[in-house]
Sequence to fold (403 residues):
Amino acid sequence: MVNGKKRKEEHEEFEYFTEKILMDPLLFERIVCDGLDHKIVEEDLARKCIFLCAMGSYVLNAKRTSYNLLVNAESGAGKDHVTDAVLKIMPNEIVQKRTRISPAALTYWHDAKWEPNWTWDGKILYLEDCSNQILNCDVFKVFTSGGSHATIVKDQRAVDIVIKGKPVVIITSASADPAAEMIRRFMVVNLNESRKQTSDVMKKWAENSMVIKKEVEYNDYHEALKYLLPFNVIIPWANKLVPYMNNEHLHMRTHFSRFLDLIKASAVVHQWQREKEEENIIIAEELDYNISRELIIKTASNNRMVPLTKNQKDIIENLKEMGLNTIFTEEDIVEVGWTHSELLAKLPFGRTQLYDELNKLVKFGFVNKTNYRFGNDFKKTIVYHYQETSPISIPTWEEMNNL
Fold:
């Protein structure tokens, strides 16, 4: 009798979460907005990016690198609070969180030699306030790529470490300085650091201090996600997108696949509402396209979809405002770029950091680097200036289907 009662309760719970929540056409918006409004003030873009990348852990036929995410903002902006609040909606068993970890610990964490049944597939690796030491270490590159082995030196001998599976990697950082080959592996989202946002956050905390609120919606969405399963996702109309994409840069090979994989992640969120081609295959729809399109447009400032850190965006904005440097010579008036020393005096960065960031931006095509001979100087000096880029353009659903 007790077992029968328990089964009835489980069946009623299943019907509630599947029919009332997972079948809701506005499920994505409900989770990232309604389910998190009491935890997070505004930051809708960050909420959506974190949640959708996290849901990538349920997509079987995606490049796991597509869901690597860097939440980049100044200290005190709330990046850890926002990320933590979103990921707490996910089932607890799939999130592996660390507030601090060393390269050595990361290497041996869940080593297949000692945990043969462990796999990172279907998991989320969340590193809070990730240091540049971790961000650019060799083992972390394995976690953020499709690799499965790491070789380290121990007691003067090379030792192979087998890393089974590939997790979704979500990190937060205030001073992220990833190497050029690392930044292309991450989607980057910044937080709102405006004074208005600061006021709104203070108002929210003041309101929360005046009453005790029940977190019914938050808990319901957390429980509902336990009924989601991993799926392969088909995008029948993916080929229609190709003519709209910029094919001039190799970066697009990575970023276009990320766009498609975000569509797949949305389909998995809405799996109870999607048509199934086979038992473990679902078909993406218009809503999935629209969700992915919005995130790509708002996180990529250019038609190459290259992700940029907060520091890189600051340098670009400053260079854009500075324009060209006017030089008066005996023969003529010329406009050239700015020397490293001149930029150093105007930008809030250290000498080495500015060199590194400028070189990355030159490589990505956002900054122009040339040589100029000042006056009677024997050697030419390197100068930099802003390079105009085309804004990102992704067709609407209607435009794509009218091609």
User: Anything to note?
Assistant: The chain is about 40% helix and 15% strand. The mean pLDDT is 84. The longest strand covers residues 149-154. The two ends are 62 Å apart (CA to CA).
